[in-house]
Design the sequence.
């Protein structure tokens, strides 16, 4: 009996055998690096941040005291800090609502009517602003909204300057010029984040079957009824997905409000100022936790509304 | 061999920590071929921004030390870069220099090894922002005031008081100053308010705008709350302020000679002045890192920075003042006597240089309001509280 000639087994062959016998091992090897990334780099840094927020700053020396305390969180409730949170939250809600309203007709047209080249042009039109530098866009808006900027000029030329003046007279949100008022901050935020609302909205609108709209019409519903009872509920997950982007991006941004607006702090600006020379890292960390908490609440509500069912 | 001696820095820093404070370097040797500098943008120019402004190329040729520059935009960034290590020199401002000394990130300078030390403007030689207990931690580089910039169409004669940006009033053109003035959005601006109160509320007994007790501090914040009602937007970025003077109808603001220069070069109706109350200002120092890898080249650079031609050109480029007085008049560079006067050279005594406010001050330990509170309270003031 002649034994079969066995090919020599290389290291790779042996490894293959081990992985074949124990598939769990391969899985472990493959999944460890991304898990480490997520666990250490991503969640780890968040945990470090959270930890910092439980420290406090010594009133006397200004040094960070590394002892567990809730004092720093209590400081968030001081009127001046509380203002910052409310101001940011109000802006995020306003920007999200405005984005949703402005994005819907655009997304609807792109999903329902645009075909072929038009569709490509649509995508390009929406995506193009995302490709240019964020800072360039913000500075451009500063010039557009300035007191002696192009918008005021156009308004004067068309005798509609009173419209801008009336808006600037509004108590609370008005100001000296569009670029130094909350209205300006709001306009620029809405412009910059709009694409993030349009894209998920369009994706969800494309999934609404035309047959349902036809059925609704056949059963005698008016266009408004169809919109309210068929289109809107089916598109809601997309709207919520988009709102998560616009809402969280507005909560965290510190560049737009520092260039356009009244100089009043938003959460991001407060964090930026507190962690610097001030060395008040605990309060900066506590401020940074605020958007996280708000987003967790928001995501829980969104989940209940079914925003993630389509994922 | 009378050349030296890069002694082991470990031993040295130990000596520094335990023994009396002495300069680490006692004599100079050959250059190491390189020097790494952390600097403000525009501070170390090699003719790349404008061919006329170059004070690096010739130094590299003469000394054989290649100059590597890392620019930093804030004092905090400078401090953290120096904490990371790997740099020889830093052009630190007054709100960073003492922190670097306290953190033992920079070493005392042996002034005997800098032949031009004697040429230094005597007003700066022992500046408290880089001299601790009589020991010099660096070589002064440039200084400048925070001036009051104004629109010459509105102010036919220069304003004589900072009240135009602090109190509600009608400007010479008959219109109110509401929405037409600006202020710096850094917490250090509280010092400008304190400086104003030094003259206008002598009963508060403010002696230094950076050392404020609770009462003085509260008065300064109250003044800033009035200012909030006048200011549409605070300025943070020099270029944005330039734009605001052009497009937002802003006619008066605390500013730097740099912005004044930009606007004047752009043919805008703008000038600057130092009002009767005086002004705050900044003074920058070239400081040597404790663990500098190229001390010989670093010393050569520090000597080079006191060169009159460099001081002259740099002060024109940056809108600042030379630390070597003759640079204003000796025509070694582009600076002129008039230029120096415009940059505030003659107003040294009126200027209170930026330092970081700390709790322990001349009024006693823990008597003053520390900087971290300046930050959180200034956020409140700008937010309308």
Sequence:
């Amino acid at each position: 009996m002649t034994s079969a000639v066995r090919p020599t087994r290389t290291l790779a062959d042996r490894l293959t055998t081990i992985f074949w016998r124990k598939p769990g091992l391969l899985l472990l090897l493959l999944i460890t690096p991304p898990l480490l990334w997520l666990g250490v780099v991503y969640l780890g840094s968040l945990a470090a941040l959270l930890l910092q927020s439980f420290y406090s700053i010594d009133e006397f020396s200004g040094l960070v005291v590394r002892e567990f305390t809730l004092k720093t969180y209590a400081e968030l409730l001081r009127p001046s800090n509380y203002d910052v949170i409310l101001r940011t939250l109000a802006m995020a809600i306003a920007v999200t609502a405005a984005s949703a309203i402005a994005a819907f007709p655009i997304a609807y047209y792109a999903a329902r009517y645009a075909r072929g080249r038009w569709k490509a042009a649509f995508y390009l039109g929406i995506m193009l602003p995302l490709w240019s530098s964020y800072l360039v866009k913000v500075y451009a808006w500063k010039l557009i909204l300035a007191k002696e900027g192009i918008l005021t000029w156009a308004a004067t030329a068309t005798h509609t300057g009173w419209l801008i003046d009336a808006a600037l007279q509004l108590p609370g949100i008005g100001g000296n010029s569009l670029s130094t008022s909350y209205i300006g901050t709001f306009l620029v935020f809405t412009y910059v984040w709009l694409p993030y609302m349009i894209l998920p909205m369009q994706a969800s609108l494309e999934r609404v079957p035309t047959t349902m709209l036809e059925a609704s019409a056949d059963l005698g519903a008016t266009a408004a009824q169809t919109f309210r009872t068929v289109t809107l509920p089916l598109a809601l997950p997309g709207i919520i997905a988009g709102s998560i982007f616009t809402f969280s991006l507005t909560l965290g941004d510190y560049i737009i409000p520092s260039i356009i607006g009244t100089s009043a702090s938003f959460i991001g600006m407060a964090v930026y100022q507190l962690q610097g020379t001030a060395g008040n890292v605990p309060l900066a960390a506590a401020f940074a936790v605020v958007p996280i908490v708000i987003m967790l609440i928001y995501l829980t509500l969104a989940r209940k509304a079914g925003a993630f069912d389509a994922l | 061999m009378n050349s030296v001696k890069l002694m082991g820095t470990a031993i040295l820093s130990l000596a520094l920590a335990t023994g009396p404070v002495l300069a680490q370097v006692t004599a100079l040797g050959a250059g190491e071929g390189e020097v790494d500098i952390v600097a403000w943008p525009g501070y170390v120019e090699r003719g790349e921004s404008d061919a006329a402004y170059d004070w690096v190329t010739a130094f590299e040729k003469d000394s054989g030390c290649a100059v590597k520059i890392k620019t930093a935009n804030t004092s905090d960034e400078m401090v953290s870069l120096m904490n990371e290590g790997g740099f020889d020199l830093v052009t630190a401002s007054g709100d960073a220099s003492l922190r670097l000394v306290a953190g033992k990130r920079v070493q005392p300078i042996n002034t005997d090894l800098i032949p031009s030390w004697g040429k230094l403007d005597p007003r700066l030689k022992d500046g408290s922002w880089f001299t601790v207990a009589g020991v010099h931690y660096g070589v002064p580089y440039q200084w400048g005031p925070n001036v009051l910039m104004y629109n010459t169409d509105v102010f036919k004669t220069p304003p004589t008081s900072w009240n135009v940006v602090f109190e509600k009033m009608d400007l010479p053109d008959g219109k109110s100053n509401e929405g037409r003035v600006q202020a710096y959005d850094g917490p250090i601006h509280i010092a400008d308010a304190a400086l104003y109160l030094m003259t206008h509320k002598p009963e508060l007994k403010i002696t230094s705008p950076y050392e404020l007790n609770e009462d003085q501090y509260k008065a300064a914040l109250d003044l800033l709350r009035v200012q909030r009602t006048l200011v549409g937007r605070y300025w943070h970025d020099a270029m944005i302020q330039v734009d605001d003077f052009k497009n937002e109808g802003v006619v008066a603001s605390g500013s730097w000679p740099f912005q004044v220069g930009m606007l004047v070069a752009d043919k805008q109706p703008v000038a600057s002045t130092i009002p009767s109350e005086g002004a705050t200002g900044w003074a920058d120092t070239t400081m040597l890192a404790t663990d500098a890898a190229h001390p010989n080249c670093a010393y050569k650079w520090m000597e080079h920075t006191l060169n009159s031609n460099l001081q002259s050109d740099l002060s024109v480029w940056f809108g600042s003042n030379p630390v070597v007085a003759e640079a204003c008049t000796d025509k070694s560079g582009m600076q002129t006597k008039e230029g120096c006067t415009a940059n505030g050279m003659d107003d040294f005594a009126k200027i209170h240089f930026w330092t970081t406010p700390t709790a322990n001050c001349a009024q006693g330990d823990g008597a003053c309001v520390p900087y971290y509170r300046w930050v959180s309270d200034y956020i409140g003031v700008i937010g309308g509280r």
Summary: Chain B touches chain A through 38 residues (CB under 8 Å).
